[in-house]
Design brief:
With 180 residues, this protein is mainly beta. It has one domain (2-32, 53-179): Pnp Oxidase, Chain A (Roll), CATH 2.30.110.20. It contains three helices and 14 strands. It has helices spanning 68-77, 121-127, 132-137, and strands at residues 2-8, 25-27, 29-31, 34-35, 38-39, 49-50, 54-55, 58-63, 81-89, 97-114, 141-147, 150-155, 168-173, 178-179. Strands 1, 2, 3, 8, 9, 10, 11, 12, 13 and 14 form a ten-stranded antiparallel beta sheet that branches. Strands 4-7 form a two-stranded antiparallel ribbon. It has a two-stranded antiparallel ribbon with strand order 5-6. A hairpin with a 7-residue loop joins strand 9 and strand 10 (97-114). The chain is globular and about 60 Å long.
Amino acid sequence: MTMYLTTKGPNIKGDVTSSNHKDWISIDSFRFGASRNISTQPGRTINRESTRPAISEVTLTKRMDKATTHLFQNALDGKVIEEVTLQLCTTSDSVSNYFELTLTDVIISSIEETAVNAAHSDTAGSKMGVNAEQQQKNLPVETLTLNFTKFQMRYIPYDEQHKQSDPSSAGYDLTQATTI
C-alpha cells in the first residue's frame, strides 16, 4: 500500500514522481476516527442516550521533502487550505486508489519534525521508536495534525481480477452537524 496527499488552495507540491500522483506528498501513516459518548442505565438498555459524534483531527506522518517548509509556514500562519485529499493505493502491477479521504477548510493545527542522529541510534532512536535501519535509510519524520470543517471518505473495492466494484462513502459536515 502507498499513501499520497495533495492540497488545493494553496497547491503544496511534494516529491512523488509517479504519473498518477506527480507532485503529491508521500505519506507514511495516517490516523482518523470518530466516537460518541453513550450512556446506558442498567436495566434500561433500550433507552440508551448518545451525544453528537466527536470527529478526531487527522494525524499524518511523512518524510521530510520539498513540501516541508511550505507546510510548516502554513501551520505558523494558520491559513486555511481549501481542500486536502489523501489516497490509499494498491501496490500491485497497476496503482489503484482504493480509499480516498477529502478534507475541506483545513488548518494545520500541529506540525513536528523528528530526527535522530544515526550515531546515537541505540539510545535516542530506540526511545523514539525509530530503529537503526530506519534512521540510516530515511529522512527526518514529520507529524502533522489537520483540523477541518468537513470530510468525505470513499472506499473502492476490487475483485480478484482487479475489477472495480461499487464504491461506498461516508462523510460529515461539522459546521452543519450533519452527515453528507
